[in-house]
C-alpha cells in the first residue's frame, strides 16, 4: 500500500475555513507527520492531539510539519481544536471514516447485535473494546494512568490548574503529595483522561455527529520531504495510539537529517538498481 499516494490525492474539509482542500501540499519542503485520528470525541484523539501540542515546538524544530484528520464534521473539529489548542489550519475532518478504510486502519470490534442500529452496535462494541476485547493493551494502559509511570514525563505543571469534573479544580502540585515530581505521578494521567471524558460527554452531540464509527481506530505516518515513509503506527485498539505510550512521540527522536539523507540515498540506489535490471 502506498500510503503517501493515498494521502496526497485525498481532500477533506479543513477546520479553519471549511474549505475542501488537499491533506498534503502539492510539493513538500520538509518532513510531515500525519496523524489519522479516530472519532474526535475519542480518548485517543484528544490525548494524542494533546501530546502533539505539548511537543509542537520540538516537532517544528526538527523540520516536521503536522497534519491531522479525525472523524467528525467541522463543528466537531472546531470544538476539538478549541479544547486542545490545536491549530485549526492543521486539522481536517472525515465524516464517514472513508480515509481510515482506504488506509486499512483497524475498524475495531464489529460484533453484529441483532435488533440494534449501527450506532447502538458501535456503542456495544466500543464498551467491549474498553474491557480489552479485540483491543490489546487497553486495560494495562488504563491502569498505567492510575498507578503512574516513571518512564513518562511529568504531565501537569506545578502551578497548572486542571478542571476534571466531578473532581474539584486541582493544581499540578497536588500530585507531588501522591508521588513526587519529574515523572508521571499516580493519578496524573487518569485525571487528564477524566478531563477529556467530561469535555467529550458534555458536548457529545457536537463531537460525535454519527456514532456508527466509534470503534474505528487511527494511525500515525511520518514522511520525508520526498514522500518516503519513515515511520508508521497502526492503532491496535483503544488507548493504543502510540507504540510507546509513555512517550508517544519518542519515534521522532530517531529521525534526524542525517538519517533521512541515508534513507533517501538508499531509495535512490534501489531505484537505480531496479532500472538497470529492467
Summarize the structure in words.
The chain has a single domain (3-149, 206-277), classed as Glutaredoxin, CATH 3.40.30. It is globular and about 50 Å long. By secondary structure, the chain is an alpha+beta fold. Strands 2-1-5-4-3-8-9 form a 7-stranded mixed beta sheet. Residues 260-278 have low confidence and may be disordered. The longest helix is centred in the C-terminal third of the chain and has 21 residues, at 257-277. Helix 7 packs across helix 9. The chain contains 11 helices and 9 strands. It has helices spanning 3-8, 43-54, 56-61, 74-84, 98-102, 118-130, 138-147, 174-178, 188-202, 204-207, 257-277, and strands at 11-14, 20-22, 31-39, 64-71, 91-94, 161-162, 170-171, 219-223, 229-234. A hairpin with a 5-residue loop joins strand 1 (11-14) and strand 2. Helices cover 39% and strands 15% of the residues.
